[in-house]
């Protein structure tokens, strides 16, 4: 009888989660429904689904701040929303909790140090060059209208493969089994979330979709495992490398430069213990998953917003050209107005619409309200960024919101595209560096105008556009880079 009750409760919880997912539709209308919730409730609302399950949805910085700043020791990534990623990403930093999370975070943090990230700028530049050469060819052939997501996703994958594995996939010009498997896994995770019967492993792994997921995982894991094992063997024989390999070519240096895998292989905790091959594989797979789609979404929407506002685009282009006249792309931190345009785009079109957290103790929010232990807290990044109490005219693209004078009195948690607190995005500096490089070089070489198609937002794992995000490209006679 107890077993039967557990099965019934489990089924009930899954149905509740599915109902919540349906209510939070991954469509343009779903985002408009969030707008209505924010206007109605201002800071938060609760979903009570029977006696077993509750979800608190928050969209005001004063309520979000105490949750995201809570100690990692009481913060848990819930399985109901993140569990579908575990067969792909394993017990990685994204999905781990407690002491395991603390250890991984300490070991991974040096890999994202500013001095390390500076070395990746040449890779971002090289991958952008490949994409822009393809665009010039397409424009010359009369195909000036292009889907930004399609091209930019391949470009960010290309740069990540070089930064992570020192691997030249040529994925921007030709197909790859590994690249196809990553796209397949992302699609299947979204599909599984929306199908209630596929929430049970015993049913999902017997379905055609589950078999496809297993096959794609096998391809991705096999690639990563091989690279990790080969690289560990190379380190044993050749010693430590120097810095990232930016060539991506066939030439081998006597002492190869370090990439993300090398940095993980060399990392040690205070006891002198490093990560196992399986742990490194999980982190590399997570870096590839979290690093290409989110950044591609961010870049695509920046270019879209600037195509809608030619005055801002011209001002950014002038700023970029003035900076690069006598300097290198490594100096792209010095682009104040372009950075303001990027941040406003990340506010208006946040690549990640929400994050969820669960807490092992009661959490207090303003007004003396208490979120009970075990409740799932859905931090609506989209709702927070579109809250009219914080952002007047929230649907208007206005980069001047991020002028230092206009930002000084704003809540520290009004703008959280990379989340916040101890469990924030460890790769946010990497992402911002790539955003600046790609946006700057694109504006230097092309003028972007609207593609003549109605844009309907599509919030999936990242924010996309239904049918693609189409813009029209015009080649510019840019100065030599």
From TrEMBL:
Cofactor(s), names only, from the UniProt record: heme
Family, similarity comment: Belongs to the cytochrome P450 family.
Substrates-to-products reaction catalysed: testosterone + 3 reduced [NADPH--hemoprotein reductase] + 3 O2 = 17beta-estradiol + formate + 3 oxidized [NADPH--hemoprotein reductase] + 4 H2O + 4 H(+); androst-4-ene-3,17-dione + 3 reduced [NADPH--hemoprotein reductase] + 3 O2 = estrone + formate + 3 oxidized [NADPH--hemoprotein reductase] + 4 H2O + 4 H(+)
Protein name (record): Cytochrome P450 family 4 subfamily F member 8
Gene Ontology molecular function terms on file: aromatase activity; heme binding; iron ion binding
One GO location term (cellular component): endoplasmic reticulum membrane
Highest taxon above the source species: Eukaryota
Stretch forming the signal peptide: 1-19
Gene, per the UniProt record: LOC110531701
Location, primary (coarse class): endoplasmic reticulum
Keywords for this protein: Endoplasmic reticulum, Heme, Iron, Membrane, Metal-binding, Monooxygenase, Oxidoreductase, Signal
Binding site for heme: 425
Role: Catalyzes the formation of aromatic C18 estrogens from C19 androgens.
Location relative to the cell: Endoplasmic reticulum membrane
């Amino acid at each position: 009888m107890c077993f039967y009750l557990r099965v019934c409760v489990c089924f009930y919880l899954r149905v509740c989660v599915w109902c919540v997912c349906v209510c939070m539709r991954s469509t343009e209308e779903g985002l408009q429904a969030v707008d209505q919730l924010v206007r109605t409730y201002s800071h938060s609302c609760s979903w009570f689904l029977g006696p077993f399950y509750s979800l608190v949805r928050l969209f005001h910085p004063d309520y979000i701040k105490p949750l995201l700043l809570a100690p990692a020791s009481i913060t848990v990534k819930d399985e109901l929303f993140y569990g579908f990623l575990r067969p792909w990403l394993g017990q990685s930093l994204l999905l781990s909790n407690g002491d395991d999370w603390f250890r991984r975070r300490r070991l991974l943090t040096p890999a994202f140090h500013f001095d390390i990230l500076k070395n990746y700028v040449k890779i971002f530049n090289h991958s952008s060059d490949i994409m822009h050469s393809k665009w010039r060819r397409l424009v010359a052939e009369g195909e000036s209208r292009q889907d930004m997501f399609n091209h930019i996703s391949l470009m960010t994958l290309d740069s990540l493969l070089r930064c992570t594995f020192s691997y030249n996939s040529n994925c921007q010009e030709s197909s790859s089994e590994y690249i196809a498997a990553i796209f397949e896994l992302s699609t299947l995770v979204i599909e599984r979330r929306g199908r209630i019967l596929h929430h049970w492993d015993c049913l999902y792994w017997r379905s055609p979709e589950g078999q496809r997921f297993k096959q794609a995982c096998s391809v991705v894991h096999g690639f990563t495992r091989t690279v990790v094992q080969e690289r560990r063997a190379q380190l044993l024989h050749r010693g430590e490398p120097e810095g990232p390999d930016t060539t991506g070519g066939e030439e081998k240096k006597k002492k190869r430069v370090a990439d993300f895998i090398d940095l993980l292989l060399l990392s040690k905790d205070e006891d002198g213990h490093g990560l196992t091959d399986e742990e490194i594989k999980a982190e590399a797979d997570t870096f590839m998953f979290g690093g290409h789609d989110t950044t591609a979404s961010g870049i695509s929407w920046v270019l879209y917003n600037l195509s809608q506002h030619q005055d801002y685009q011209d001002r950014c282009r002038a700023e970029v050209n003035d900076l690069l006249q006598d300097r290198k792309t490594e100096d792209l931190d010095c682009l104040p107005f372009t950075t303001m345009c990027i941040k406003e785009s990340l506010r208006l079109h946040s690549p990640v619409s929400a994050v969820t957290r669960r807490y092992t103790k009661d959490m207090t929010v303003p007004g003396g309200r208490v979120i009970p232990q075990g409740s799932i807290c859905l931090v609506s990044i989209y709702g927070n960024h579109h809250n009219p109490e914080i952002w007047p005219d929230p649907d208007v693209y206005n980069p001047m919101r991020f002028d230092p004078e206009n930002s000084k009195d704003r809540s520290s948690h009004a703008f959280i595209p990379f989340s916040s607190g101890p469990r924030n995005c460890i790769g946010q500096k990497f992402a911002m560096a790539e955003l600046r490089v790609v946006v700057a070089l694109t504006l230097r070489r092309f003028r972007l105008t609207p593609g003549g198609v109605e844009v309907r937002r599509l919030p999936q794992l990242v924010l996309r556009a239904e049918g693609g995000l189409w813009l029209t490209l015009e080649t510019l006679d840019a100065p030599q880079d």
